[in-house]
Design brief:
CATH superfamily: Trypsin-like serine proteases
CATH architecture: Beta Barrel
Radius of gyration: 17 Å
Helix content: under 10%
Number of strands: 15
CATH topology: Thrombin, subunit H
Largest sheet: 9 strands, mixed
Strand content: 25-35%
């Protein structure tokens, strides 16, 4: 995972029903049991060959949103779709469903060689098409939530370094600013949280407001960055239809080194 460099100078400054899991001092709730996971099954871990992982979320039975930088390797080359594996609701080795990826599309204009720039953050979105749909009765996809205003309360469900075996739910954090297609949040994210959905409440339902692109997780005042989604997702669906699916490979799942320097391709988190 690449280091999160300084952003361009112009950048300015949902909770659901309770769970039996215990909140950690970090404000995170580990979704360990099946009852804890109820309602969040569509969030899963995307394993990237043997190199690392990101977080993803279903927006259709066969479509998963994640960060664009997760589908590029360290050399800035697109990864083979056959090396990607979506594991919905993964917790301690148990999954709700597991699928390979037939093809994917990343937003045009995202430059994996440019590092972290404002343009890359606002385009840091990819859409994966699963080799086989996951039934909505097993993992109900989330819909998008447009808008987002400063001070709005949000929640995040993510995997991450040292918490990669089960999803962690931060029930309450905030949107601290929004400008020119970019949002900032004071949410607790880390390596592997790239692509994690940021949820806003709409009545009694959680909807996807943004995805985690990167952030500074070791600073005293944590910050995570995301992007506006509706227009990007519309473009991705169009581009995905024009992308040829890959020939399935019977590679299965292989164990991933986590908590070390061998992490996913390019997740952008900074040291102070």
């Amino acid at each position: 995972m690449r280091v999160f460099r300084a952003l361009l100078p112009f950048i300015l400054a949902a909770g659901l029903p309770g769970t039996g899991a215990l909140a950690e001092t970090s404000g995170l709730i580990r979704l360990t049991d099946r009852d804890d996971l109820f309602g969040w099954e569509a969030v899963g871990r995307i394993d990237i060959g043997t190199s690392g992982f990101c977080t993803g979320v279903l927006i259709a039975p066969d479509q998963v949103l994640t960060a664009a930088h997760c589908v590029y390797d360290r050399a800035g080359k697109p990864v083979d779709a056959r090396t990607l594996r979506f594991r919905a609701g993964l917790r301690d080795g148990v999954v709700v469903a597991e699928r390979g990826v037939a093809r994917y599309a990343a937003i045009k204009g995202y430059d994996p060689d440019a590092g972290v720039t404002a343009d890359n953050i606002r385009r840091d979105v990819a859409l994966l098409e699963l080799a086989k749909p996951i039934q909505s009765a097993v993992a109900a996809p989330f819909v998008l939530n447009g808008g987002g205003t400063k001070g709005q309360r949000v929640s995040v469900v993510s995997y991450g370094a040292n918490r990669e075996k089960a999803p962690s739910w931060q029930r309450d954090c905030g949107l601290t600013w929004r400008a020119k297609g970019i949002m900032a949040f004071d949410c607790n994210v880390i390596f592997g949280s790239s692509g994690a959905p940021v949820f806003a409440r709409d009545g009694g339902r959680a909807r996807i407001l943004s995805l985690i692109s990167g952030g500074n997780w070791q600073a005293k005042d944590k910050v995570a960055y995301g992007m506006d989604l509706p227009v990007l997702v519309k473009d991705l669906k169009r581009d995905l239809r024009a992308t040829a699916p890959v020939t399935p490979a019977n590679t299965g799942f292989r164990r991933i080194d986590v908590g070390t320097d061998r992490r996913a391709s390019g997740a952008k988190f900074a040291k102070p």
